[in-house]
Amino acid sequence: MTAEAAQIVEAYRATHAEVEERMEQLDTPSRWYFDKDGSPLTTFEFVALFADDHYRRVALDDIPPHGHISTVWLGSNHNWGEGPPLIFETMVFLREAQSSIQARYATLEDAQRGHAFYLEEARRNILRAL
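Request: output the structure for the sequence above.
Response:
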């Protein structure tokens, strides 16, 4: 766990001391929750990190006036089959589209590359439309 993540978890733990006893049963690393580095998290650690908007956000870019692209840390494994845990997600929201684009990733680096790819594709398509 990164120093930033550990700090967030400790701050959350300190402000939620009243439920600490109940959390002991949730303090076992899970096969479902992972930090940004892919290290397993306890349920308590996951909840603390997920509650922090800054930790969750990987990238957010507006594409005025067409929409925006958001990449976030999901923390919970969204891979229901074989393969690595998918814990990041990029969503492309375009106002004129009837649906959004979604891509999921196993690593922070892949999520950052995916975000950059979709941002470049959106900008390229907007320029073609002009």
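Residues 56-129 form one domain.
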